Every structure is written in C-alpha cells, then in structure tokens.
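Human: I hope this is not a bother. Would you mind checking the protein record under this note? Thank you for your patience.
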Amino acid sequence: MAIIGTLLKKGIHLRESLEQEYGSASELQKQELKKLLIAARKTHFGEKYQFRGILESFRQEGDAYYQAYAKKVPIYDYEKIYAEWWHLLQQGEKNITWPKAIKFFALSSGTSGASSKYIPISKDMVQAMRKTGVRQLLTLSKYDLPSKLFNKGILMLGGSTDLEFNGTYFAGDLSGITAGRLPIWFQRFYKPGQKIAKNKNWGEKLDQIVEKAAKWDIGIIVGVPAWLQILIEKIIAHYQVETIHDIWPNLTIFVHGGVCFEPYKRGFEKLLARPLIYMETYLASEGFLAFQASPECSSMKLVLNNGVFYEFIPFTDQFFDENGDLKEGVQPLSIAGLREGVEYAMLISTCAGAWRYMIGDVVKFTSLEECELIITGRTKHFLSLCGEHLSVDNMNKAIQMAENQLNIHIREFTVIGLPYQNLFAHQWYVGTDDAIDHEVLGQRIDDNLKQINDDYITERNHALKKVSVQVVPSRKFYDWMKSEGKEGGQHKFPRVLKGAKMDSWIAFLDQ
C-alpha cells in the first residue's frame, strides 16, 4: 500500500485509464466487443450465434458491427441464459459461453426473485475486477489526502471466503470470492484478515471484528452501508466511546455500493467525529461496471474498456410491461445512441460469458461526454400499478426528505402495491427506532412523492387511492433477512416487495 501511495502522489495512471480518458466511448466499446467475440468465437455459444460472421462486420463503417451483433444474438435474462447455457457450466462442461471451465459462481442477493442466482465468474472477470479496483484506487490522487493514509488498514466487510465446493465448482458471495484471492501486496493491509473472513456465521464474524477493532488502524472501510453501520454501532457500544473515530482516528474513506447511500447517511454520520469521503462503486455480481472517479462528482464513471460491452433500453411502458419484463421486439441502443437524463435498463456482455444479459439495473446518464451515470433502481423494484411509475430513486429521495423534515433516522424501508376498493394502494413499511406517528410519516412521504414525481401526483388523484405507513423496529428488517438466509455480506433489503418475498415479509411481521 505504501507503493500505491507513492504512485498516487506522483500521479501515475494505468494505461487503460488514459485510454478511456482520451478515447471515444463508442470506439472503446466497439473494440471491447471485438475482444469479447474473438475470445469466445470457439465456444458453443459463439459457434451457435456465428461470432466469426459478426467479427467480419467490424471491417465495415459505422455501427454495422453492432447491428450484426444485435441481429444474431438474442437478449437474455438470468432465467433464460441459465436454462439454455449456464446450467451446463455447473456440470463442469467447458467452452460453453466462455473459454474453458468456470470454477467460481457468485451467489447474487436474489432481491428480484425468490432464490439466489448463480453468476459465473471467470478468471478473466476476476482479473478485470482487480484492474478496475486499482483504477478507482488511483483516483484518490484527485483528493486532498495525507500520505500516511495509504499505509493504514482497509476493512472490507463482505461474505465468507470459505466458499461452498461441490466437487465441481465453488460458490459464495462475490465479496467472498474476491477477498479470498487478493493480490499479495494487498493482503498485509486487508482486514479483518483471512481467518475471520472465512467465518460463515455473520453474527460471530461481527463479534470477532469488534474484539479486534481496537488493535487495528483503519483508514478505509468497504461494504454495504446497513451492515457497516451495524458493525460500527457494535464497536462503539463495546468500547463505550462516543464515535468510531475514538477507535479508528485515521478513518477517512468509505467505499460503498449496491444500494443508494443517502437513506443511510443521516444515521451513519451520527457515529462519526468528522465527515468521511464517500466513494460509490457499481460492483455487481456480473462485473465491476463503474465507480466514482472524482470528488467533485457524485455520479459514477462507466468503465468502457475492461471486459464489458453495454447496451441500453429506455425504461418506459413502450418497452417494459407492468411487471418490469421486457416486451417482444425491442431494439436496444449502443452507447452511441443515448441521451442524458433518460432512464435505461442495461444489458451487458462480459468476459465471464454473459451475452446481451439484462442485469436488472436501471441507470441514468448525468454526463454522456464523461460517461457518468447514477443507478435509479431495478427493473423489478418499482411500482406502477396504475401508471404512477414510482422508482427506487423516487423512494430514496422521499425518505431522505422525510428524515430531514421530521428529524428522525430511517434505517430501512420497503413498499408493496395492493388492490384497494377496486383500485390501488401503496403500503410502506418504514424501519426506525425513533418515536414517530405513522400517519404523520405517511403524509410526509406521500407529499414528498407528489413533489418528486408528476405521474405519482396524477394517479393519487385517480387510481392510487391510499398510501399508508407501518412503522417497524429496524431490527425486524435484519431479522427477516436472516430468516431468508440473506444476512450480511452483499445482501440488501429490497425496496419493493412482490410475490413470494412480499408474502414472506407479511407473514414474518404477523408472527
């Protein structure tokens, strides 16, 4: 880490970072797709969809290469690509969607469906994730940071590195897969260390970290906000101190991702003696897609030249049904055809054998020139029972506004849509340990959404007849996740509950 600190102070950059900084987004993506197709041309997938023929179109002008790719290769979601291709990888078969066998599978948090998904992780993808991680690390040269910070410990709070092995492949949280294969130069600074990281019991792992915390000099923390907040609260209570800076005086940076941080920020900052630098990452089970690249900008820069090719579909009623499923005959856009401020569902093709794969996220570009974006939600995590088009981004903003208006801290929340008097209703479940009248809170949230979303206010006057709030102790949210086998690691509480998960949550609260 001292070496990295020296590099940062000297302003050294990776070649790939410079290529993206001075390159055309469309040209970088064209070359990335070419690399992926060349690598996979002899796989079963590549032969079926005639990758060699698609590669010949790269000699032509314009976007002929993309039109050929889009014409030959169908769009996949997880269920479709797993049923047709990825289940063969779990049987140990080689050269299916990517060269050689796949030895690792990341278990996704499964917030959209009823169970975890097995996402293939190739050696090429592990290398790509590492490279993007270093690229983000080197952006710290843009911050005014003391040199001593780069010699401090880095606490990465993730899933167990003791992966499940069935004789053919290993499976576990992506954080557990990557943390178990850290570069040698990084291991000296990595906390909580390999022994604690292997523990599969999340409660025990947190207790072990608490016991060791006072012996560590932590400068950077990495993880999902909810679980890091719980850990820090435990540390503060155990050592009977005022803030985490009494234990870790050099704590300066919080690297987070997977969920919008704003709803957690108010409560999290009560645990600090001074503000932290917040750095957001877009690290999905399918790849490291984007990261916050400068202190001046809260959006994230899409990584264009490191193992991922992107396509985009406007997230509107024209292209998606009321369940968030893609309609027939949709033609996605390459990065050359986008507009700022428009919400897009994203498809990715990757060096782990995902092809035109709908990742499930909805993004919005804040700057096409810099390829900077924000995540606004999930294709399945939105409510549009009657045309209200309520996104997770809308929900997060409404909750944050309510926190400030009522001077309370909301740790978690979720929403379900219900039939009501032949029309519709929204039922909110809000996790807070502060005393608050549920009707007052419900009115605030409702009023805030009317300010944020024009479609919402229209439907509140017509088909959306009721919005109610149930205040729930915050611990209930984490207890339910534990009951679902989703405690700790990369797991996040879904902002919208539908189907089996909705039924499970309601039954859990009724116990």
About this structure: The longest strand covers residues 357-367. The mean pLDDT is 90. The longest helix spans residues 25-40.
